[in-house]
Amino acid sequence: MRPERIRRLGSVSPDTPLDDVLATMQRARAxxxxxxRDDAADDTSAAGPSGLVVLEDVLARLVGEVRDATPExxxxxxxxxxxx
Length: 84
Description:
With 84 residues, the protein is an alpha+beta fold. The protein has helices at residues 18-28, 55-63, 72-75; strands at 10-12, 32-36, 49-54. The protein has a domain at 7-38 and 47-63: CBS-domain (Roll).
């Protein structure tokens, strides 16, 4: 893969307000963000990410559950199913 196609993920701390998390993800143009450890500065063995945040989950917390608008009859799969 060409290096110019790989973008860095936005990084947030666990106590970052959701609207700031959304803004960080928008700036990074990413659907995925890295949650950094709060205690990493005090303990170098704890350095690194503590988790991931997904854009769909951020939006669900801010505006409510995000549902697919495509009727079941068109997709052939029951709502909530991935079709896999």
